[in-house]
Structure formats: C-alpha cells, structure tokens
Amino acid sequence: MAETWRLILLLVPLIAGAISIFFSFRLMKRFRTPFAGSFFYYMVFLYIFGTYSVAGAGILEHLLTRMEVDQKVIHSARLYAAFLGIPFLALAKFMFLKSIIDFFQKKPSGLFIALYFLVFLGALVLFGFYMVRLTRFKLGEYQTMIDIQRWVFVGFMIILYLSAFFYIFLLSAKLRDIPAKKYIRVFASWYLAFMVLCVGSLALSSYHSLFRQLFLLFFLSWHLIPLLFMNIYMNKHQDQDSELQEDFESRLVAFAAQHEISKRECDVVRLICRGLSNQEISDTLFISLQTVKDHTHRIFVKTGVRNRVQLSNMIR
To answer: Where does the chain show beta strands of DSSP type E?
Structure first.
C-alpha cells in the first residue's frame, strides 16, 4: 500500500508539470509576447530539472535500495543526478527572471547575465571537483555533501524569489495600468508562496521521505495556479495573433525592412492593424499616450501614408 502511495505522489507532480508546460505553450502561441515566451521556457527547463534531478534521483535511490546496493553508491548516484541538473536549473531560473523583465518591457543588462552565469559556472566547477573525489569519500562525507547541496539550493531559491518579489513590487508601483499592476503583483505573491512551500518541505526532507515527495509536488505542480491567472489576464488585456492573417508577421518583417521601421515601431504597427486605439496601445505596451502618438507620426512619415487604414492596407 505504501508503495502505491509513493507512486501516486511521484506521478501527480510529473503529470501536473507536463500539463503546465502544455498550457504555457498554448499561451505563448496565442499571445506572442516576450513575457509568455520566456515563461514557457522557464517551465520547460524547470520540468527537465525536476524530472531528472529530483524525481529521477528519488526513483534511482528507491531502486538501488531495494537491490540492497551499498549506501555509498546510492548517495553517489543522488549527487551525480543533482550535478547534471545544474545547467537546467540555471537556465530555468534565468528565464523566470527574464519573463518578469519582459513584462516591464525592459532588457536584462549584459553585466547581470554575465554575473548570473558565472556564479552558476563556478558552482558547477566546484561541485564537479568534489564529484571527482567521490571515490575517496567516507559514508558520512556523502551525507554531508548531500546536506550542503540541499541548503545551497534552499538559499538560492530564497534569494532568487525574494529578489523577484521586491523587483516586481518596486517596478509595478510606476505602472498606470491598474489591471497590469494587479496581475503582476498577484503573480509575485503566488511565487513567494511557491518559494515558502518548496523551501519548507525541502528543509524538512532529512526528517522524513514524505517531505521530499511534497517538495516535488510543489516544485512541479504549483505553476498551474499562476498560469490560470496569466490566462485570465491575457484573455482580457492582450490581443491574440489569430486576429491577424497567418502570414502577417512575415509581411510585417518585410515591411519594416523596406521602410526602416524600428522594433518598437513594429509593435505599434502590429497593434494598429489589430484596430487598437492610441490609448489601448499605450496600455498594452506600457508607454505614454504621447509616445504612441510620436511613434505613429514617425511611421506615417516613413511610409508616406495619411491614416491607419492606409497603413493596414499596405501590410495586408
């Protein structure tokens, strides 16, 4: 009976994680925004890490224990699984941060990207150094290494999600779009709760194996909740690309190259072709109404059109 429940507790988060990826993929395809795209890749990399390094390590440990394999071999297998999952974890958390930055129409600085991946590279090299020495470890040293790995991961989650939470609340204070402000703050609150649940269950995992299974459940299943809010928000406040012709994007690229239209001006053109007003474009792109008017004027000058209808017809 206990084996059945363990299997259920293992399969539920894996299935929930796969469903989360499916829904995030649909959102990315329906709303071709950088925010939705980055969040989808966050889900993919997180699922790979959770499936391989967390669930996979647990399954391997269970099988080796039933085969009465030496404890040193079991601990070694757990450490190797975690080591090989570090690159996916690094990519997942980077895409999470990038999705937030994309929501505010900003770009991550080159210095931030370099420092972020240098830290992970350093952690990977240091971890790898100890992996090479695994054959010389005593049984107690294996357990110490596993405990260090667990607490480093806990600290990383706390720093990352707390930083994201405060970053969202600071930048959202400047938003004049009330629905966008409310959505991004709810989004931040759900991921703060995600961090608390994951950290709590992982910190207690050394006391009972049930907490490790709860960690996997929270780690892969929790994202269905923010995805629900994302779907509601984007359905109300974002326009779908399906409203445009299937070849609209390729036409827009050619049009932009011909008339030297900038990337931001392309965003304005796209929304004009969807029939949005200047105020609606301002709210969608999180820019001022005057900035929208300035972009529109420059587009008209570059293309030689006099109104929105002519502009839409040139592309369609």
So the answer is: none
What is the residue extent of each domain of the chain?
Answer: 2-237, 241-315
Separation of CA 31 from chain center? 16
The topology (CATH level 3) of 2-237 is Rhopdopsin 7-helix transmembrane proteins (1.20.1070)
**Distance from C-alpha of 265 to C-alpha of 259, rounded to nearest angstrom:** 11
Domains 2-237 and 241-315 share a fold: no
The CATH number of the structural domain formed by 241-315 is 1.10.10.10
Closest CA to 91 of 158, 40, 19: 40
Instruction: For the chain, 316 residues long, give each residue's pLDDT as a single digit of tens.
Output: 456 666 677 788 889 999 999 999 988 877 777 888 899 999 999 999 988 887 777 776 767 767 777 777 777 777 787 788 889 999 999 999 999 998 887 888 889 899 999 988 988 888 888 777 766 666 567 777 777 888 888 999 999 999 999 999 998 888 877 888 888 999 999 999 999 999 999 888 878 777 888 888 899 999 999 998 888 887 776 654 445 555 777 888 888 888 899 989 988 998 888 778 888 888 788 888 899 999 999 999 998 888 887 887 787 6
